[in-house]
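Supplementary Methods. Inverse-folding protocol.

Structures were first reduced to a discrete structure-token string of length 282. This string, shown here, constituted the complete conditioning input.
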């Protein structure tokens, strides 16, 4: 199982589009995939036809109301693509959780319990908000990997140093496993000199972490959300479908450690141990 946060604190770089369509691409390859929307703007939820004002049982209830994670999971597109939607109320999470103990690990704890009971999942993808607050920290604390979409435009690398610092800080303080494993050039206008120059600059900076797949600018990717569908359902023959299928193939064969979900000790054991402690001669 792989748990991946799609993160860049800059907005409009293709995070949500990537979570939706990489997720759908992996599901098409026969993987079981769970997408978690932790952006209060809930664009990922909207992408799959959910209304972020009226949807019940969302990530907001999981983080702020102790709702079991499993109660918020639903099918997004076919049985292999599951999702936990977001809600506009999540915008208040920062304040609501200000005094909550261990508020950086709420998502990790809730997800861990769910994963113990759902070991057949292959991928969990988090769609992060375009900010560096408690929600992003929760995603980085819960993930093993980080994918960073970078728009191949002038100043693409601006702010990336800060992004890397945040991942490093979370690794030191909260989650020793998390690391950036993939850089995804997005919204690229192939053939232009600028796009090529930016891609070379990204490659100089991140080397082999840069995916070979580049996501081209393709209007079908921008249209798909308004139809409540992934690119594979909406426009299977498009350049967008081709690119995200290629990305899913590349992601699926990456040589990275997978998360091992340790079997949970049966609870009866605790009672047995206590019984023996109380009756040592037995
Ligand atoms: P983020 O989640 O990083 O804010 P989005 O995935 O929402 O970014 O993308 C921002 C906007 O650009 C959206 O309107 C989306 O539909 C559009 N978009 C994203 N990727 C592409 C692409 N490859 N080609 C065309 N439009 C895209
Ligand atoms: Mg988004």
């Amino acid at each position: 199982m792989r748990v991946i946060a799609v993160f860049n604190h800059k907005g409009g770089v293709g995070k949500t589009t990537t979570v939706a369509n990489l997720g759908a691409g992996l599901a098409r390859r026969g993987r079981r995939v769970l997408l978690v929307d932790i952006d209060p703007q809930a664009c990922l939820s909207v992408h799959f036809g959910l209304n972020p004002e009226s949807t019940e049982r969302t990530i907001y209830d999981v983080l702020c109301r102790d709702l079991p994670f499993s109660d918020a999971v639903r099918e997004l597109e076919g049985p292999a693509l599951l999702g936990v939607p977001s809600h506009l109320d999540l915008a208040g999470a920062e304040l609501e959780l200000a005094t909550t103990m261990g508020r950086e690990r709420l998502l990790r704890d809730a997800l861990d319990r769910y994963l113990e009971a759902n070991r057949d999942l292959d991928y969990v993808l988090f769609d992060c908000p375009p900010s560096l607050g408690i929600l992003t920290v929760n995603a980085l604390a819960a993930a093993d990997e980080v994918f960073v979409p970078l728009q191949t435009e002038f100043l693409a690398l601006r702010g990336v140093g800060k992004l890397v610092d945040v991942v490093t800080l979370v690794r030191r303080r909260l989650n020793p496993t998390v690391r950036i494993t993939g850089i995804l050039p997005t919204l690229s206008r192939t053939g232009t000199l600028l796009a090529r120059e930016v891609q070379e600059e990204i490659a100089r900076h991140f080397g082999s972490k840069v995916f070979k797949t580049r996501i081209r600018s393709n209007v079908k990717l921008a249209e798909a959300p308004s139809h409540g569908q992934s690119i594979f359902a909406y426009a299977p023959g498009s350049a967008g479908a081709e690119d995200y299928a290629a990305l899913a193939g590349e992601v699926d064969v990456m040589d990275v450690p997978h998360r091992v979900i340790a079997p949970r000790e049966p609870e009866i054991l605790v009672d047995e141990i206590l019984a023996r402690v109380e009756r040592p001669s037995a």
